[in-house]
Design a protein that fits this description.
Length: about 425
C-alpha cells in the first residue's frame, strides 16, 4: 500500500493524540504484578500495547509479541518472576512459556537482560540463537539482591528489572556502571512504580534500590504521548501559515516523559508552545509560530532517541545544519534508523553523513531530488510519521506501507485528514 499526501494551505486543527505507549506498557506490567482488579484508563490503542494486553490476559504457552520490542523486554522479566501463572478463566496454571516475535525481533539482542535475570535466579534458555529471542522461560519466585550492569544498555532492560524488583525475595539493588543513557525513561519507570505504591529511589547517582514489597492495586489514568506530539511540532515548523495553530489536549506540562523536551527543541526552530495548566494536566497545549533565528543545531539525543528522526527531517527541510549525537540505539530499533534516514533523505535532495554509528551530520550538502519521491518505511512507524510532514514543503509526498504507524499512533492518518491533508491511496 502507498499513500499520496498533499498538504493543506492552512494548518489549524485540534488533535486527538494517543495515550503514552511508554506509560501504558509500564502500567500494564505493574497492574498485573499488583493483582490488577482496578481500572487503567486511557490506555494506548497502539499495536505494542494491544500485544501486551493480549499477552497478559490470554497467557498462551507461546507468547508471540510480534514486533513489539518493549513487550519482549517487559514480558521476559514478568514471566521469569511469575511462578505458576493461573490461566485466565481456568483452574489450570502454567509455569513455562515460549516468548517469541517477528523475524526482525529474533535478530534484536536481549542477552544483557537474560544474563541479568539469570543472576537474579531466573530460569531462561534460548530456543534459538544465543543472545536473541525466542526465549523459553520457567517462572518462579526469584531471589533478587544486588545486580550490576552497564548504564548504556537499553533503558527497557533496566525498566523491566526494576518493575519486578518489589516481587523479589531480597528486593533489588541495581547499580548502573559507566554512562547512563535514556535516564528519563528510567525515571518514568520509577514514577509509575511510585503511583502504584512502591517505595523506590536512586540511593546515589548510579544505584537504585527497591525493597521487597507489594504493589497497590489502584485506578490509574495514562497521560497522552509527547512522542506523538513531536510530529505536529514538525508540521508547525514546516508550515508557512504564520497564523497557524495546532491544539494538543491531554499533555502534562510537568510530564516524566523524556520526549516532553520536544517543546524546547522546537522553540529554537520557530514553534512556540502555549500552555494553560491546571494542577497536573495542561488543559490544552497550543502550538503557534514565532521567529526562528537558528541556522545550525547541535544536540545529544542519548535521552530522547525517538525524537531523532523528527528533528533530522525537520532541520533538513528548514535548511538548518546539524550535528546530532547519542544515536547509537537507532541502529537496533525497528530498523537501522541511521541508514534509513540517509537513504530516504537522498530521495528528497539531502545528503547526510553518519559517524561512529552514533552521530548524524548535515553540512548543507544537497543532491538532485527524485522527481516523485516515494519514502520507504522499513516496518518503522517513526519513519512514516517523520517524513509525512514533508508534504508541506514539497507539495506532495508518497509513503510506502503507511500502515506501520499502528505500532504507536494508529489514528495518525485520520488526524492528518482532519487537519486538511489530502490522502489518496496509491498502488
Amino acid at each position: 500500500m502507498q499513500y499520496i499526501l498533499q498538504a493543506p494551505q492552512r494548518l489549524r486543527t485540534t488533535v486527538k493524540l494517543p495515550a503514552s505507549k511508554s506509560i501504558s506498557n509500564r502500567a500494564l506490567i505493574i497492574h498485573a504484578l499488583a493483582g490488577g482488579t482496578k481500572t487503567l484508563r486511557n490506555l494506548s490503542d497502539c499495536d505494542d500495547t494491544r500485544v501486551l494486553i493480549g499477552a497478559l490476559t490470554e497467557m498462551p504457552e507461546v507468547v508471540d509479541i510480534g514486533a513489539a520490542g518493549t513487550a519482549m523486554r517487559f514480558m521476559a522479566a514478568y514471566l521469569a518472576a511469575t511462578p505458576n501463572y493461573k490461566l485466565p478463566k481456568s483452574d489450570e496454571s502454567l509455569s513455562t512459556f515460549l516468548l517469541t516475535g517477528t523475524e526482525r525481533m529474533k535478530h534484536r539482542p536481549i542477552g544483557v537482560l537474560v544474563n541479568a535475570l539469570r543472576q537474579l535466579g531466573a530460569d531462561i534458555t534460548y530456543a534459538g540463537e544465543d543472545g536473541f529471542p525466542p526465549l523459553r522461560i520457567c517462572g518462579k519466585q526469584l531471589e533478587g539482591g544486588q545486580l550490576e550492569m552497564p548504564g548504556n544498555v537499553s533503558s527497557q532492560y533496566i525498566s523491566a528489572l526494576l518493575m519486578i524488583g518489589p516481587t523479589l525475595k531480597k528486593g533489588l539493588q541495581l547499580k548502573l556502571t559507566g554512562n547512563i543513557v535514556s535516564r528519563p525513561y528510567i525515571d518514568l519507570t520509577l514514577h509509575v512504580m511510585r503511583q502504584f505504591g512502591c517505595n523506590i529511589a536512586w540511593t546515589d547517582e548510579s544505584t537504585i534500590s527497591v525493597a521487597p514489597q507489594a504493589y497497590k492495586d489502584v485506578d490509574y489514568e495514562i497521560e497522552n504521548d509527547w512522542s506523538a506530539a513531536s510530529y505536529w511540532y514538525e508540521m508547525m515548523a514546516l508550515s508557512d501559515d504564520m497564523e497557524g495553530e495546532v491544539t494538543l489536549p491531554g499533555l502534562y506540562d510537568n510530564s516524566y516523559q523524556g520526549d516532553s523536551v520536544v517543546r524546547q527543541l522546537f522553540e529554537v526552530l520557530g514553534v512556540k508552545t502555549n500552555e494553560e495548566t491546571g494542577e497536573r494536566e495542561s488543559e490544552e497545549t497550543r502550538l503557534t509560530h514565532h521567529e526562528r533565528l537558528l541556522t545550525r543545531m547541535e544536540y545529544d539525543f542519548v535521552d530522547q532517541p525517538d525524537l531523532a528522526q523528527t528533528l533530522v527531517v525537520t532541520c533538513c527541510a528548514l535548511g538548518v545544519k546539524f550535528h546530532f549525537t547519542g544515536l547509537a540505539s537507532l541502529k537496533i530499533k525497528e530498523t537501522d534508523r541511521i541508514e534509513a534516514l540517509k537513504k530516504e533523505l537522498r530521495k528528497v535532495g539531502f545528503v547526510i553523513y553518519d559517524h561512529n554509528d552514533a552521530e548524524l551530520i548535515w553540512d548543507g550538502e544537497r543532491c538532485k531530488p527524485e522527481a516523485t519521491p516515494v519514502i520507504d518505511t522499513y516496518e518503522d512507524h517513526r519513519m512514516a510519521m517523520a517524513f509525512a510532514p514533508l508534504a508541506i514543503t514539497l507539495g506532495e509526498i508518497r509513503i510506502n506501507n503507511p500502515q506501520v504507524v499502528s505500532k504507536s499512533y494508529p489514528k495518525f492518518w485520520n488526524e492528518l485528514e482532519e487537519a486538511g491533508f489530502g490522502i489518496v491511496k496509491g498502488e
